[in-house]
Amino acid sequence: MSQHTAAHPAPALRRVVVTGSAGFIGSHLSHALVQSGAKVVGVDLRDPVTDATAGNNLARLLNRPEYVHLTADLRDCSIEPLLIDADVVFHLAGVPGVRPSWGPRFGDYLSSNVLATHRVMEACARIGVPRVVVASSSSVYGPTDGGASTETDRPAPASPYAVTKLAEEQLCIAHSGRPGGPSVVALRYFTVYGPRQRSDMFIHRALQAALSGQSLRLYGDGRQRRDFTFIDDAVSATIAAGTVQDAHGPVNVGGGATASLLEVIHLAGGLVGRDIQLEHDHARSGDVITTRADLGRAREALGWEPRVALHSGMRTHLEELASQYPSLSRAA
Ligand code: NAD
Ligand code: UGA
Question: Ligand 1 pocket test: which of 18, 19, 24, 101 has the largest number of ligand atoms within 8 Å of its C-beta?
């Protein structure tokens, strides 16, 4: 048994690789790692010079000497040179989003979430990277009876996206069993929100609707519940997963409480001081009614638990959106 446990974490990380670093979670993670003193190599398909979202996500990082950015596609780029001397690879690159995974874009989900992950894992084994932390998803659980999902539950992914995320995490775990394979922690993130959240996601859209007065499209009756997780909590769990010596396998990362979409709409309206106009639409295939994380393993294996409640996290998210889009004025 190692001397490093959740209670006695390993020393701070020296050099790490973050894939998907121009994305929502990856950019926050990269920034936190740089702040902690690590040197970070960030890799992403999106070029921060030509892609406005990537440029905005990386704005605080590109001028930092501790951060090196590479625009590259993990489906075909040379990966090994990036990994030399890395303590951890945080593999967050991938195509996210449940609803667009039906139809013609499935090939992108499959190639970036599964085939590119296989390339990353092969390269990690060849270079001898000791730890990979991979972004899995609460969506691997599929429909539940409303109770908390634990990592030992049988997965039942209900969308093409969720199928690729289950394949991705299981692929990484399979690689970890090979001689010379890295140890793997697969973080099952539960609907992460906060500053720079992807613009297709619900809390971003609800806050934007409250700020702008434009209507919000609601899929289904709004009684769906999510275990919304604030970005800073997702980041601290991810760093713990890269640092704690004995962690292995899937670990839930949730916010610690659930809220319905109707409750989020009420909160967003209250924070801004304007009622949100709803445009009702049909429920989408693959959307589950409830996600709820059992956090026992996260506490035990990572020594981690979430700290930020939804109201407070949404307030922080709102401040960022309001400054990002000054044209969206507050009503109150
Ligand atoms: P995001 O789209 O903001 O970030 C993902 C990044 O990966 C993007 O910048 C994209 O350009 C990059 N990427 C995609 N394919 C690539 C490839 N082939 N090569 C190099 N880069 C590539 O998404 P996010 O919300 O930050 O999610 C990050 C990860 O976490 C994803 O793997 C997603 O499936 C997972 N996840 C997210 C959430 C959430 O609530 N945001 C929840 C569960 C799991
Ligand atoms: C989110 C991420 O988008 C996925 O990448 C991730 O894997 C997943 O969390 C996860 O937890 O694993 P989702 O829960 O669908 O997926 O998050 P949102 O996109 O914010 O949607 C939440 C709910 O709001 C869904 O029921 C959706 O149908 C609804 N919604 C979303 C709307 O009603 N209107 C919208 O405009 C957007």
Answer: 24
What does DSSP say about strands 39-44 and 67-71: parallel, antiparallel, or unpaired? parallel
Superfamily of domain 15-189+230-253+292-307: NAD(P)-binding Rossmann-like Domain (3.40.50.720)
Ligand 2 atom closest to 192 (CA)? 9
pLDDT of residue 12: 83
What pLDDT does residue 328 have?
58
- Does residue 325 carry a catalytic annotation? no
- What are the φ/ψ torsions at residue 41 (nearest 5 degrees)? -100, 115
pLDDT in tens, 249-297: 999 999 999 999 999 999 999 999 999 999 999 999 999 999 999 999 9
The alpha carbon of residue 300 and the mean position of all alpha carbons in its chain are separated, in whole angstroms, by: 21
- Pairing mode, strands 88-91 and 39-44: unpaired
C-alpha 23/C-alpha 45 separation (Å) is: 10
Instruction: Please indicate whether residue 162, judged by its CB atom, sits closer than 6 Å to ligand 1.
Output: no
Closest atom of ligand 2 relative to the 140 alpha carbon: 12
Spell out the domain ranges in the chain.
Answer: 15-189+230-253+292-307
Q: Is the CB of 254 under 6 A from ligand 1?
A: no
Question: Does residue 235 line the site of ligand 1, with CB under 6 A?
Answer: no
Query: Two tokens at 267?
Result: 């909160």
Mean predicted lDDT score pLDDT of the chain: 95
pTM tops 0.85, yes or no: yes
- Among 61, 92, 172, say which to mutate for ligand 1: greatest number of ligand atoms within 8 Å of CB: 92
The percent of residues above 90 in pLDDT, for the chain, comes to 93
Tell me: pLDDT of 7 over 60: no
Q: Which ligand is nearest to the CA of 142?
A: 2
Q: Is the pLDDT of residue 132 over 90?
A: yes
Atom of ligand 2 nearest to the CA of 283: 28
What Å distances lie between residue 136 and 205, 213, 272, 291, CA to CA? 23, 35, 33, 14
